[in-house]
Amino acid sequence: MAELTIDRLKDILRISAGEDESEQLAGEIGETTFGELGYDSLALLETAALIKREYGVDITDDIEHLTTPQALTDFVNAKSAA
């Protein structure tokens, strides 16, 4: 299975929030919290649903603890490798 990258996560975040392009997602965002990026719990639940469909990893119960894009991608990649 393909690894979830920060760039792919940026695409998923844009899709889940209904944004075409977002300046908030420009540059290095790995350690920026989702709150600082402007993503609320609803957008993150949609992100979790898209990740489950694409990567087969259910992060719905863990999403509140995955506060940065890097934490989320590391978690998904570890779960999909197991």
Write a concise synopsis of the structure shown.
With 82 residues, the protein is an all-alpha fold.
What would you say this structure looks like, in words?
- The protein has 82 residues and is mainly α.
- It has one domain (6-21, 29-81): Non-ribosomal Peptide Synthetase Peptidyl Carrier Protein, Chain A (Orthogonal Bundle), CATH 1.10.1200.10.
- It contains four helices and no strands.
- It has helices at 6-17, 34-37, 41-55, 69-81.
- Helix 1 (6-17) crosses helix 3 (41-55).
- The longest helix is centred in the middle third of the chain and has 15 residues, at 41-55.
- The protein is globular, with a radius of gyration of 11 Å.
Order of helices and strands: HHHH
Taking the sheet with the most strands, its summary is: none
Task: Spell out the CATH superfamily.
Answer: ACP-like
Helical amount? 40-55%
Q: Based on the structure, what is the oligomeric state of the protein chains?
A: single chain
Distance between the termini: 11 Å
Please provide the count of β strands: 0
Instruction: Show unreliable segments.
Output: none
Q: What share of residues are in beta strands?
A: under 5%
List the total number of helices.
4
Q: What general form does the structure show? A: globular
CATH architecture level-2 label: Orthogonal Bundle
Pfam families: PP-binding
Domain Carrier: 3-82
Organism: Streptomyces bangladeshensis
InterPro entries: ACP-like_sf (IPR036736), PP-bd_ACP (IPR009081), Ppantetheine_attach_site (IPR006162)
